[in-house]
Each structure stands twice: as structure tokens, then as C-alpha cells.
Amino acid sequence: MDNIRRISSDQRIPLSDLSRHFKVIAGPGAGKTHWLVEHIINVLQNAENLTYTSKIACITYTTVGAEEIQSRLGMNQERVEVSTIHSFLYANVVKPYVYLLNDTHGKRLVNVEELDGHYENIATNGKIYQWKEKTRAHYLRDNKKLKEYLEQLDWKLVDGQLYLKPRKNYRIGNYYIRIEDLPLYKQLFWDEGVIHHEDVLYFSYRILKEFPIILEHLSAKYPYVFLDEFQDTNPIQTEIIKWLGNSGSVIGVVGDPAQSIYEFQGASRKDFIDFTLPNQIVYMIENNRRCGSKIVDFLNHIRKGDQLTQKPTRENSNHDIYVIECTDGPYQAIANFNNLRISLGLKKDYCILTRNNDTVKLLRNTENSEVWTSFSEADSSNRERFIKSILTAYKLTLDARYEVAIKELERSIKTDRHGELKDPFQENQIISPIMKRSLAVDLLEFLANDLKTSLDQSLFEFYNSLSDFFIEKGIAIKKISRGKIKQFSESITIRSLVDNLTLSEEKTTEIRTIHKAKGAEFESVLLYLPEVKDVNLLVNPDINSEQEDTRILYVALSRAKDLLCISCPPLNDAMLKKLEALNVKRNH
């Protein structure tokens, strides 16, 4: 604690310290994004080792975070490369250098001639069949479970070696999958020039470890590398960033260990806590500029035992915290929440947060089904991937993220290195990159018009409309004419597909998971807890636990600016008294 320098979010680092590595510990609402943007401007204006050919790299862990920083930088964007860690490593390491990697037989590990970005890992029926053939694993009969298993593979760093493992290991029927067979699944994609998001870290690590001279080039190009939300880093990312720091880049990491909630994706809270480089300075921002004073007091209770105690700076917000018991179901609790905030004159933005996607669907009163799994099982021409990408773009437009939507559509229109369109388009059709961009823009306009009032049309009807759209552009997609896919497409609506399509990030929805509210703030928040044991975590928190439950609830609670409400099942008198001692009132 004695070596930590306390600063405010408006305080600049002295010019004499601009060339030193740093770590900033900042809680929710501290203004760390504001501080980071101001620090970038400070470096642009005053750093002596930033040349006309070099840039500052600012890395975030979500595209929403990148968009926010870009918008705040304004005219200063030209000298700063803002991106996610995957985009940064793909553009600067994987795309230019993956050709250097060979397999044990001397063959290139990836078909670089067909390489075009990185994609979500979707285990299609075709790939599952090919993998079974290669591994002689036809005894694994449950393709639905096998698909789920293969789609949650991730790379793990253990003692300097990378291993491909499932996030959760379980049996398929009566059998466990041989770990040594899993890279063969990846190789099927790599042979076609397709790499997945998680593969970007794998290839980056291998390239930089086996060809360290590339690090010197990267450090010259990016003499400053700043990373936001670094509590969500994983060991592979951490190692790469340390390599950059030891090669000459000035590294700055910003984060909050109390908000580390991505362990299920391989994130390591300990990596942020222990992160250190030679001559590094540690700063701490203690203020909370977001939340009212009573909310800050409650948040300090949740993170007791942590090194950071926040100080509220808002003097005009002092609303009580309320618990709303669900005696008549969740919809009545939501109604009570809305009535309460309106009665308090709080009529601006609000959000209802909960732990998982199934509960989100319950609160939205939408049907919870496995329509996308059924789609995959019925399809054999990559239509599932194609339609999922198209409807993802449509949902992005609802968040007004039009440029991201266009890029998603460009990615959905897949071509080989000669520009020939791939499934589900018909063969022998060529399209240029410029035509692809133009087609994506027109397709987005078509989606906005077609789906605006027609979400209840069947997938079959929508697909035929898509076919007509492409025909007008001189392009043909494979028709749906018979078999399982025809039966499925006639039986399912676009609304059902959209409702069951989970985006990794959301900006405007009023009911969402806690993970998707990371970085957001709202005038009023209702935290929906389906079980009493969750309430006990608020009464007896352990912010430093290896389990993430307390930290997940902490992130949810800290989204509220003025009104914080907690909805839960009916509580006994003892629990109500414990909450009352924490200044949480019962809403009658």
C-alpha cells in the first residue's frame, strides 16, 4: 500500500514518468476511461519517443469499449490504434506472420492464402463428421452434446506450453474425448484458412515465442501500449504484453480486481494483481463519480477486505437501497421497481440485471428454446452460420452500431482467395472486396426494412426474401427445397431465432445479463436474484474468493447511479434485519 500513488481521474502523470510502465487500480465509476483518454492525449503531446511512424496502441476487451474510447479521442484518433486484444494481435502478428508456422511434417499450419479474419467457433455437421473420420470417433453418437463440447474449446497456457482443452470437461454418452484428438478438429478449419477467436492468442503466442525479433518491430511501431479492463486478461495475453514491455514498449494496464468476472473464459484475476514490469508505478483512483453515497457505502461493504475503499463525489444523490421480495412472481417485482423509480422522479434510463441468459429470456417473457441447435442439426450448407451472422447484424442496428453491423455482414459473405463465394451461395460466383462492402450496406438496409414489421414470418419466407434480394444484385444463394432444413425453416419464425440469439455485447437493452452490462451505467438498476442464497452473498461477501459469485453481484450493483433495487424470493426476518443493518430497506 505504501508504494501506491493515489490520484484523481483528472490528474495527469508527470512528464518525467511518461516513459515508465504503470498499473492503475480503479473501482467502478472512478472515471478510468476518462483518465486513460486524457493520459493518451498527454503522451501524444509530450512524449519524446513517439515518432511520425509510430502509434499508441490502446487495447480494450470489448468492441463497445473500443468504440467509446474512439469517440472520446475525437481528432486524436489518427495517432492511436484502438482495438480489442484479438483484433490487435490478428492485424499485427497473426495475419502478417502466421505463414512462418509449420506442422511436424513441415507443412504450413494455416492455409494463409484463404485466411480472412477470425470467426466464432461453430461446429457444423460437416466438421463434426470430418473430425469423427480423422479420429475414428464414430462411437460418439450424441452430435448435439459433441457440438456443445467442441464449441467451448480454449487454449490454456501451462508451464510455457499451450494446450487445447474444453472449458468444462464432460462425457459424450459413456465416453470422454481424448484431449490429444482436439487439435485435429482445429486443423480442419486451419486447412481452409479459417481460424477462431481463441486461435488468435494461440498463434500470436507461438509466433512471438519462436520468432522474438518480431517483438522488436512491434515495440518500435507501438512504443506505448495501454490496456483497459486488464482484470479480464488471461495468462496468454499477460505473457505477450510482458514480452512487449521487455522489448521496449511502455506498458500501462488499468483495471479493478473486484470486477474480474470472466474466469469461465480463461481470465485470471491474479494476473492483474501480480502484474509487474521493471520500474513500474502503481496508481490508485479512489473516487466514485457515478453512484450515490448510499450505493457507494454498500459497494464498500461488498468489497471489504480489498485494498480499495471508494469515496463518493456526488452530493446530489442520496436515495435509499431497496429489496423487493417476489411474492407474486418476477413481473410484479419489475412493476414495483418501475413504480418506485417513477415515484422518486427517476424517469431516465434503467436496466434489469440477472446472472444468466435463461433468466433474461424469462424476464423478457420470451420462449426459451434451442432453435439454433435445431437449425444446425437440420442444415448442411452453412446456412446456420450465414443466418446467425445476418440476424446478429440486425440486432446490432437496434443498438445503433451500424458500422459493426456492416462488418458483420461483410464477414458473412465468405469468399476464397479468388473472390469466389462460398456456401450458402451457389458455385462459380465472383465478388470483389469493394462489391462485398457495397453489398453489405445494401443488405443492412434490406434487413432494416424487411424485419421491421415482419419478425413473425417463417425462416423459409425470410430466406426466400433474401434470395430475391441477392438475385436483384446478380448473385444466387442455394435454395431451400426439401429435407430437414425445409421442414425446420417452415416451422420456425425469425422472432424465435432473434430472441434466442445471444450477442456477446449489448448497449441498449433494458433487460440483460450482468456480464453484458460491464462498463455501462444507468440511473436506476434492478438486480434480479432468483435464489435466497444469492442474497446471502450480499450480506456475507467475499470479494477475494476464487469463485466469482460475489464479484459478479458487485459489478451489477455498481451499475446504478441513483436508485438500486434488489429483487429476490421472500426473506425471513433474520435476513431482513441483516439487510436493514446495511441500510437496505424493504419495499412494501
Quick synopsis:
By secondary structure, the chain is an alpha/beta fold.
Identify the strand order in the major beta sheet.
1-11-2-10-9-3-4
Structural class: alpha/beta
Number of helices: 23
Please give the share of residues in helix.
40-55%
Envelope shape: globular
What's the N-to-C terminus distance?
44 Å
Question: What is the rounded Rg?
Answer: 25 Å
Low-pLDDT runs of 5+ residues are: none
Q: Give the strand tally.
A: 19
Largest sheet, described in full?
Answer: 7 strands, parallel
Let me know the average pLDDT.
92
Strand content: 5-15%
Helix-strand blueprint:
Layout: E1 4-7, E2 22-26, H1 32-46, E3 56-60, H2 63-73, E4 80-84, H3 85-97, E5 118-119, H4 125-135, H5 143-150, E6 153-158, E7 161-166, H6 182-190, E8 195-196, H7 197-210, H8 213-221, E9 224-227, H9 235-246, E10 250-255, H10 269-274, E11 281-285, E12 287-288, H11 293-302, E13 311-312, E14 321-325, H12 330-343, E15 350-354, H13 357-364, H14 371-378, H15 383-398, H16 402-412, H17 433-450, H18 459-472, H19 483-491, H20 494-499, E16 511-513, E17 522-528, H21 532-539, H22 549-557, E18 560-568, H23 573-581, E19 584-586
Parallel strand pairs: 1-11, 2-10, 2-11, 3-4, 3-9, 5-8, 9-10, 12-13, 14-18, 14-19, 15-16, 15-17, 17-18
Antiparallel strand pairs: 6-7
